[in-house]
Structures
1.
Amino acid sequence: MYFTAKARYNHRSFDDNPDGLKLVWLPKEDGKHIPCLLYRDSNFADKKVIVYFHGSYEDLGWEGMTDDIVEMAHMWRMSVLCVEYPGYGLNFNRGIATPADIKLDACKVINYLRYDLGLRGKDIILMGRSLGTGVALHCSIAMDEQPCALIIVSPFTSIRDVVKDKNSCVGSLLTKQHFNSGSIIQYIQSPLYIVHGMLDPLVLV
């Protein structure tokens, strides 16, 4: 479920991007930075921002990522901030990605928006796809103010259940219970929108 291949982008990939996308670096307490892809349009009246968490086989340079971000922004007329996971792309993390590190960096991005930029919970919409749904749900219950809304696309109940659904009972027993969305979703208080294709080959509906 965790993809840490060679980055599909570099520090200059989004320079002079024709769509206006920018690679931004949000600070962490340890002096390091989290790469994020930002789309903003001064014509958008709404100051809300969609914080997007991508799927497991993607990074900020994944083909189609830029189109998805721009389409989301114009559909809802809001800024979109796509977060890179540790171990993915240019978010170097000893070459590995762990659930704990992914959750930690995601929450640091939310805290930066909340406390450094002064956004309220009502100004933030959390959105995740596939692996990102577990990240979005975790951030939602970790926030001191509930987000405006939560959108999850192709969600799963847990990583262990995904392995089990693929007819691997032994594998499910050996897989730790990461991103246990099925248990924590009951604590979500914000408006929740779930989107899932009926023919998804990986995560069964």
2.
Amino acid sequence: MSAVLTPRRKRLLLLLASGALLVAAGVFFVYPIFRSNLAFYVTPGELATSSTRAKEVLRVGGLVQPGSLQRAANGALNVRFTLTDGESSVPVVYHGVLPDLFTEGKGAIAQGKLDASGTLVATEVLAKHDENYMPPNVRHPSSQPPEAASSAAQ
């Protein structure tokens, strides 16, 4: 077997080297985009026991603590509430319109960054609900009381 690079081997080597260079360039330019859109899901308990950095975007999920929801008095969209998992809690500040299903005692997910005081400054708030959710203005026939169903049939 000779160590001489024939024109065919040179072409193959050049093709492999340029392919590796293209893959490396793609990773170099695409990785920061994926990294900036990455948000880790944590509970208030995990947040209390871990040493998360303030620059990380987090999704904190838990129940909205009853009595913690405070809206701005002047009609502004500023809202404060506390998310809890039963053991730990994290205060949340949000500026925006809350989802219709957002109420105290129900599940919610807040996405944002922690400030120096440990408060989550949320950029997005999501309300959690179960798969059996039915809008209030839509009544399922099986959810009506028996006397209402019989009078509706007549």
